[in-house]
Structure formats: C-alpha cells, structure tokens
Design goal:
Helix content is about 55%, strand content about 15%. By secondary structure, the protein is an alpha/beta fold.
C-alpha cells in the first residue's frame, strides 16, 4: 500500500477521482436545476463526457502501472479511446459555445458543419491507426510520454476547437462595449482557455493534475454562471411579483375607498327616504315618490354587491359555462327590452344591427353572453352624454372551424371616451379612471374585468378602441357552435318579383333589410328620408311601378314612421303591405299604427328569419304581430305554502303573493313544511315556495323528503326555490334536489309571477 501511495499513479488517480466526484455533484445539480434551455442541455452532455473521460484516464493509468492486468492491444485501445474522448470533448465544447453565442446547430450551413467536423474526423483517423502505424504515443510505467510523429498534430487539432470558438466570440463581439463583451467570461473564455492551456499536459506526470483540475474549474465557473443567471432571474421575477402585488394592493385600496362612497350613497338614500316616508305617511304622493327612489337605490346597491361577488367567484375559479342551444334574436330582443328604458331616460339613440348574421341559432351560455352585452351597453349608456348615440352590431364572418360560426360583437358610443393609458388597464379588476365623486358616475370598476374573464372562458377576445372625447368601441370576437343547419329556402311565392321599399334613417339598417328582401325574391330599394318615401310612393304609382311592400322605421327624423304610413296610404290605398319596424315597445303605439294602415310589426334589430316570418304572416292582410300583450295573471283561489325562517321575508312574500290573489300559508323551516304538507294532504296546496338555508331542515333536504312521499300526487307538487343563493351552481343544486324552479332574493316580482304562472300552467 505504501509503495502505491508513493507511486505517481496515486496523484494521477486521486486527482481524477476528486474531479469525478466534483463533476458528479455538478451534474446532479445541473439535471435538477439547470437543464431547461438547449445551451444548458449541451453543458450537461459535456459533464457526462468528462465523467467518462476521467474514468478512462484512471483505468489507463492503473493498467500502465501494472495494477490492473492487460495486454498490449487493450493498452492501445484504451489509450486511443481516452484520447478520442478528449478530442470529442473539445468538439462538444466548440458546439456548446457556438450555441451559447446564439447560433444553433440548425442555423449553421452544411459546409460549415462539415468543416467543423473535419478536425475531429482527422484526429479520430490518426488515433484509430496509431496501434499499427506507430504515429500515436504510448506511456511507460512511470507515466513518461513516448510520442509518435503525429503527437504534435493531434494536440493542435484538439486545441483547434476551443481556439476557434474563442476567436469567433471575440470577432462577433468586436463592436460591443468591453463590459458587455466580457460580461460572460466564465462561459465564453473559461472553457477555451483551459482546453488550450491544459490539453498538451494531459499525459505528463505532474504533482497536481493540471488538466483534471483545470477542466473541473472550468465546469465550476460555468455552473456559477448559471447559478448567477438563475438567481438574477428569480430576483427579477420576485421583484415583478412585488411590484404587481403593490400595484394590486394600491388598486384594491383605491377600490375600497371608492366603494365606501359608492355603497354609502344608495344606503344614505334608502335610509333617508325611509325616514321621510315614515314622517309623511298621510301624503300618498310623497310616500310613492320616496318608495320609488328607495327602490331605485336598492337596485343600484344590489348591482354593486353582485359585481363584487361575481368577481370573487371568477377569481376563485368557481364559474363555468353552461352551454345550451339559444337564439340570437331572442337574446338581442330581450337585451333591447332591458336597456331601451335607460337609453330613453338620457334621450340617447340606440341602434342595433344584426343583418350580417346568417346563423341565428347557436350553442352558448346565454346568461353569460347576455352579461357581456349588458355590461358593454350599460357602460356605453353610462359614459355617453344625453342625446348621444350608441350602436350595437353583431356580424358573422368566415374562418371558424366546421360546425362553428365566427361572431363579432361591436358596441360603440360617441361618449366621453377614455385615455389610452387607462384603456390598457380597463380589463383589470378594481380599476377606474375617475372616482364617482369626480365623474358623478357610480360603479365598482369590476364590470369590464368580469366581461374580460367571461370572454376568456368562451375562448374569445375583447379589445377597445377609444380616445378622450371621441367615445369608445368595444369589439368581442368568439366562435360559437351552430345549433342547427339553417340553410333553407326563404322565397315567398306570393311576393316574388314585387317591388319593396325600405325606409330607415340608419344606412346599415336600410342596406341590410333591402338585401334580406332581395334574398326573398323581391326587387328592393331604400331611402333614409320619410318625405322621400312619400314622394317615391307617388312617383311609383304614376310610372306604373307600384311598391307592393313598405318596411318603415317607426322613428324617422323628418316625418314619424306612422305619419309616413298615413300619407302613403292616402296615395296608394290599402293594397300594399306595410310593416313597421321599431326598437321600442310598439304596444303603446299599436292602435295608432293599425289605424294609420300598418299591417304587421317587426322588432329591431331585424333578423332574417323574423322578417321572413313577419312577411309570411302578413300575406293576405292578416294582422300578425311579433308580440302579444301579456295577460295579467290572476291566482285567485290558489293556495301557496311559503317556507322561510326569517319573519321579514315571510311578511314581504305574503304581501306580494296576496296582491296576486294567492291564499298564503307559511312554515318556518323544511321540517315544518313537510309536516304541514302531509297534514293537509294532496290537492290542498297548489305550489310551495321554499327557502334553501333554514335551521332544523334546509330546503333541499325538505324537497327530497317530499319527492320521496308514498302519495305520488303530493310528492309531485310544484316546488320553487326562493333563496339568496343566486349563482348558477345554486340553480343547478335546486333542480338536482327536485325543485321545479329557482327565484333569487331580493325578490323580482315580475320574475316570481312569471315562474308561478309557468309551473301552475304546466
């Protein structure tokens, strides 16, 4: 053992073993932390090759020292393999540095690739031929190198790779500042220098194994470089997160500050007008006025709360799309009914255009799509001055996958607009350009954030085009699955070839409706003036080219639509069919319109299928309308069981239901409701209104017990959930429990009556 320790082989082997241990540690760290980019993966390959190289160095040394038995052929093969590994290692370092400097293997021309391989191939040829030609080298037992004639050539070849890599680096970075040029010396200079300096000493006897330690030191430099980059990137990421968190914290602080004012404003109104109503109970007109203002303030407060809760649900990932077949005409007409009153209150003009839609029935989440449209339209009305104009345009474009339609929704106004800086943050939560105390406009600053999240769920996009004082235009694009094949023959035999005149002051509406009529087989033309329409009616009669159909807008700037109809009827008589288009509720003008000579009504925005159906219904002069006036429901004699654990809720619910004719009885929890139903028996109650969260027994459990009763007639009694749990999953839970409907609190009286009418009719 002492003789072995004094042998130079010991220094050689121990140096290699030390370096192998160090490289193994670096390799483990590299594989677990720095093996992501192509450059780092190349470095990992170099470490693996070095491990094998140092192992063959030790194996070769032990054989040459006679510690391991081997014949001459094995000695030559191991020596050749060892030197070949070093040559290959040099080549891999060259490729690594090329890649590090931004030149990938795929970016190098074939000629340059072959030139890069040429030195390695020459070196390999010399090594492989050495045992038989004698131009290689051998090592004696005391590690003294005996060099063949090609020794110098092979050293030059092995040193050529790192030398070329270093020179290329300096050449490519000639124009860069010194600090930038040598900013990554550990990678771009360490490897080449150690190969150039240490390579010639690889087979000499040295007390300190310069080549082993030199290569390991180069590895360590590179590893430190990667560690530095990683820590730098992590620190930058942490700094970005800190800045984002600070910005979000400031935004939330500002939001809470503005929300404090926004919530207190309607609360002050509710409390103040309630006190006034209590003092003026003798004056019915004043009490009615106070209650109207309390109702408006309550609705506003509810909207604020709903926005905050909705944003919270979206951020927690609790919102999912519930897609089902729905009709775009139905969605837009319902939206128009909801929003038109707000626009009229500010004397704004609202234009809706859907003539560019060819597939009207789609599969989507109707509630969420309606929420997007409501948010965009409410904002447009809110931030547009009195007398302003608001446009809604829905169109369908090419480019969607098979079975889908590419839809585009544009909501444009000519209101106050917004700064370009704020426009970049408008879809972030808790952001508002001005507080309500400055702008006089109340809100949470969450509407657009909610809209953006819903659009993202639909895999769509939303953008805004705006400038201060020039209004805003929001553009939503999304692909929706088409519910059914809508390609059909829209021709109307009785109207083929007749002349039709469209009268509307909106160019897009005129052009779109005229194209629809043409597709039905008519000869259509249009005008944007009521007076011109009357003049053209007169001239058409004189020239013998009478119009057989007039489609006239109700609101025209020069003459009202009804007046235009009245004057045209005086000229052409009763023969032509006249359709009145309107975006407003035509029930209030129905009698006047019919008296003037209108044959049918068509809601705006005009859809192809609806215009077609209106024409079908109006052929033969039979008055057909798109809407039928709702009959006022009368529930006199109907018995209802109202289940709620809160006294005030039972009192309010009883009052509302008795106003509609119901005979109301109450229960205080689910168990009480089940017992009451069993005691009264089947047929006593017509319907049950059931709260969900109650002590003793909740509404879901009570419903399940009722549905499980042996008396099938009693078990199938209609049950409606009437609860403050107002989200989509709450509706689903109600139906899963066996309920027939869901009504959210605070109670919307119209919706309550509508739901009751539906279940009692069924």
């Amino acid at each position: 053992m002492g003789q072995f320790l004094s042998n130079p082989v010991f220094n050689y082997v121990s140096a290699n073993v030390f370096c192998m241990a160090a490289i193994a540690i670096l390799l483990f760290k590299q594989l677990t932390a720095f093996n992501e980019t192509p450059v780092q993966k190349k470095f990992t390959e170099i470490l693996i090759i070095q491990l094998i190289y140092f192992f063959t160095c030790d194996l070769r040394a032990l054989i040459m020292a006679g510690i391991l038995p081997a014949n001459e052929i094995i000695i030559h093969l191991i020596s050749a393999f060892n030197f070949a590994l070093f040559a290959y290692l040099s080549y891999r370092v060259f490729l690594y540095l090329e890649l590090y400097q931004g030149i990938g293997e795929d970016d190098v021309s074939p000629l340059r690739k072959n030139l890069g391989r040429l030195p390695f191939l020459i070196n390999l040829l010399l090594i492989c031929s050495s045992p038989w030609t004698g131009i290689y080298f051998s090592v004696t037992a005391n590690l003294t190198a005996v060099q063949g004639p090609a020794w110098t050539l092979m050293l030059i070849i092995n040193s050529a790779y790192p030398t070329i890599a270093l020179l290329l680096y300096l050449y490519r970075n000639t124009g860069k500042p010194a600090e930038e040029k040598f900013g990554d010396l550990r990678v771009t200079v360490a490897f080449p220098l150690f190969f150039i300096i240490c390579g010639p000493f690889q087979s000499f006897t040295l007390p300190i194994r310069l080549l082993c330690y030199g290569l390991t030191l180069a590895d360590l430099f590179v590893y430190v470089h990667y560690t530095d980059i990683l820590m730098r990137e992590k620190n930058m990421a942490l700094e970005k997160e800190r800045i984002a968190a600070d910005d979000k914290s400031r935004a939330k602080t500002a939001f809470l500050s503005s929300m404090s004012h926004d919530i207190r404003t309607p609360m002050n109104a509710i409390i103040g007008f309630t006190n006034l109503a209590l003092k003026d109970t003798a004056d019915a007109d004043k009490v009615y006025d106070y209650l109207s203002k309390i109702k408006a303030s309550s609705a506003h407060l509810l909207n604020l709360i709903n926005d905050v809760l909705e944003m919270s649900r979206i951020e927690s990932g609790k919102i999912e799309l519930d897609e089902s077949p729905c009709s775009l005409p139905s969605i837009l007409h319902d939206l128009n009914t909801i929003i038109i009153g707000q626009a009229e209150a500010k004397q704004q003009e609202l234009f809706m255009d859907a003539v560019g839609v060819s597939n009207e029935n789609i599969i989507c989440d109707k509630l969420r799509l309606n929420q997007i449209l409501l948010n965009l339209l409410s904002n447009a009305i809110k931030y547009t001055q009195a007398g302003g104009k608001i446009y809604v345009k829905i169109s369908q474009h090419d480019g969607a996958p098979d079975g889908y339609g590419a839809y585009e929704i544009r909501v444009k106004d000519n209101g106050m607009g917004m700064s370009r800086e704020f426009a970049t943050t408008i879809f972030e939560a808790f952001t508002r350009e001005k507080t309500s105390t400055i702008s006089g406009i109340q809100g949470t600053g969450l509407g657009m954030a909610i809209t953006k999240r819903i659009v993202d769920l639909m895999h769509g996009t939303i953008e805004v085009i705006t400038a201060p004082g020039e209004g805003s235009e929001f553009i939503v694009r999304a692909n929706f699955k088409i519910a059914q094949d809508e390609d059909k023959d829209f021709s109307i035999g009785e109207l083929q070839g007749i002349n039709a005149l469209v009268v509307d002051d909106d160019f897009d509406a005129c052009d779109g409706v005229a194209k629809m009529l043409t597709s039905f087989g008519m000869h259509s033309s249009w005008t944007m003036s009521g007076k011109e329409a009357v003049l053209r009616a007169r001239h058409s009669g004189e020239m013998g080219e009478e119009f057989g159909l007039y489609v006239i807008d109700w609101k025209l700037p020069d003459l009202g639509g009804i007046e235009v109809v009245r004057q045209i009827r005086k000229i052409v008589g009763d023969k032509p069919t006249v359709i009145l288009m309107t975006a407003y509720d035509w029930i209030s003008v129905k009698d006047e319109a019919l008296e003037a000579g209108v044959n049918a009504f068509c809601n705006k925005p005009v859809f192809r299928s609806e215009l077609y159906q209106t024409l079908i219904n109006s052929v033969g002069r039979h008055i057909q309308t798109e809407k039928q006036q709702e009959e006022i429901p009368d529930f006199t004699g109907r018995k209802i069981l109202l289940v709620d654990d809160i006294d005030v809720n039972r009192e309010i619910g009883t009052a509302i239901l008795e106003m509609s004719g119901f005979e109301v009885e109450t229960a205080v929890n689910g168990a009480d409701a089940v017992d009451t139903l069993i005691a009264k028996g089947a047929g006593y109650y017509d319907v049950v209104l059931m709260d969900v969260q109650m002590p003793v027994m909740g509404g879901y459990e009570a419903t399940q017990k009722i549905r499980a009763l042996e008396d099938k007639k009693l078990a199938t009694i209609p049950i409606l959930a009437m609860t403050a749990n107002a989200f989509d999953e709450d509706r689903k839970n109600a139906f899963d429990a066996g309920m027939n409907g869901h009504i959210a609190k605070p109670i919307d009286v119209e919706k309550l009556i509508s739901e009751l009418k539906k279940v009692l009719r069924d």
